Every structure is written in structure tokens, then in C-alpha cells.
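Fold it.
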Amino acid sequence: MFDLSIALLRNAGLIAVVAVAYSVVPQRLKDNAIEAVILGVLFGLGAVLAMVDPVHLRPGLIVDSRTTLVILAGLFGGPVAAAISAALAIAYRLYLGGVGAYPGSLVIVLSALISLFGYYVLRRNGEKAVDFKILTIIALLSPFTTFAAFLLPWTIALRVLEDTFIPSSIVRVAGVLLLGTILIHERARRQAEQRIAELAGTDELCGLANRRAFYSALQRQIERSRRFNEPYCVIILDIDRFKSINDTHGHPTGDEVIRRLAEVLRRTCRETDVPARIGGEEFAVLLTNTSAGDGVNLAERIRSAVASEKIETRDETLSFTVSLGISSNHGMGMSLETVMTAADNALYISKNSGRNRVSAVDWETANALATAGLRY
């Protein structure tokens, strides 16, 4: 029994290398479907690797740690990952042949079913993150896959269970707990990194992109436009009489106005657009692949949607408006400063024309004014 346990632990060490690779590739992807496919292939190959160096009990009858990878694939990646990893493992086990081919394949099927129980029941269809409690339950269920040995002739099955059940169960439970814990901590670390990256480019109050993230996106758009002559627009908008709102109703109400404006921008803009808060009450929107006329139309929709918003305060129902200025790249060679100055000039026109309106500035005029350091 001791020699068998050592051999199985050595076998588990081989597939640990594949499991750690999970932290390098799939977690960097944003598409969950692609991640599930890669996870299934990765852990399926891990199961195959486990069978490359198995423990030979007798001719045609082998024991290995394939169940650990198949279980973890489905637990972390769902049905797609479970199906792919199980299919790869079953295909290779049947290829190896021997008297244990069909019982060995059933072990893999049972492993996939246990993993799906964890995914759908314990994780509630994948909505709940894998924690140590879930991992422990799945680990304790893993030894039941050994009973697939009853597909063997009765006398052989009893001998296999007598020889292998205890050591293989220990290795299966330990393998699921060990490798599963590694994956839990790795996923938590990746999520923490993503959260830090999001906070670095997100305005804390309203959840939109901040000034740094907006300028970075705008610079990328300018470079793309230079290469492909792709049209784009920039809108700068400012909350009208925001200081008066803060002075009259208090800063909490002013914060609610900012959050409400951010909600309007999220509703109105497309997924490819970049709405951002770039100052106290100043916002900007980058409209990708958008002509000047379409940009003005969207700006007008934003203005109208904001004007219809109502905020309930302690004393009254509050409405607020915004003024908007828009610029677009009607030519090549515009710098970030020129684009923003053109939109800012248009905003200045809206402010001086009575507020709560949209204004656009001709690109050539805006460029000449920006070069001269002047404003409309």
C-alpha cells in the first residue's frame, strides 16, 4: 500500500504542472466561453499526462490521478470544460486498452458528474465562487469513482478495491484539495489584480472611466484614425450651475447628480464608446467610428435624457441640465490637445448661449484657435 501511495503521489505531481498552467493562460481571458474551452483542453491533457505514467497493478489494469483534473475542470469551468477534459481522458484511456479500459472510462465519467454536481448545485450554476467548503465536499465525493471497478469481473473487482481503495482515495482527496486550493488562490489573486487595474482607470464616485483612462483611450483612437481614417467624435459636457446645486442642496445631492448623469451616459452611449468623468462636474465621451452628424445627434439625446431626470431631495424634486460641446476629426493629424480644445471651445459656446444645449465647432477654425491659444 505504501509503494502504491508513493507512486500515485508521483503521478499527481506530473499533472500539477498542467494545473499551475491554468494560472497563466485561461485567467487572462475575458471571454468565459473561450476560457472554459481552454480549461477543458488544459485539464484534459493533464489527465492524459497522468495516464502516461500510471501505476500498473497487473497487465491491462492501471491506477492514476486522472480524476483530479477532470473534477477540477468541471468545478471551475462548468459543463464545457468538464465535457472536453472527460472526452480527452476517455479517448486516451480507450486507446491504452486492456481489461480496465471500460471501468477506467467510467471513472472519468463519474468524475465529470461529480464536478457538475459541484458546479450546478454547490456553486449554484457557477454564480458562487469556489471556496474551501465546496472544495472539501467535492474532494470527499471523489473516492466514489473507484466503484467503477465493479465493471470488472467480480473477483478482480474485489481484489482491486482491496488493494487500491484506501491509497487511491487518500490521493484523490488530497489531490483535489491541494490543486483546488491552488486554483482558488490563483483566481482570487487574478481578480484582485483586475480590480486594482479597474480602480486605477475608474472614477470612484460614479464608476465611469477617469481622466487618465479617457485620455489613454482617446490617444489610441487618434492613432487608429491616422492609420485607417476612421471617424470619431469627442463630447465634453458640463453640469449647469453645479456649484449652486451643492450650495443649495448640499454635497450629497451634488454627488447624486453626478451619479445620475453617469447612469444617463451608460444608458445612452454604445458599448464601444468611452464615457468618462474628467473633472469635478465635467464629463467627456469618446464616440468611436462616428461621423460629426451622428455625434451631434447622440449629444442631443444625452442632453434631452439628462433634462428629464428627476432627483428627490428632502425639500423638493430637483432637475438639472448639461451643456455639451462636440468636436470631430474632419481631417488627419489632429493631436489630443487639438481635439479636446475644439470640444472645449464648443462647450464654451453652449455655456454662453444659455446653457442646456449642444454646440459643435468647425475643425479648421478650432485647430487655428488652438494653435493661437485663443477661444471662441
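The chain has a mean pLDDT of 83.
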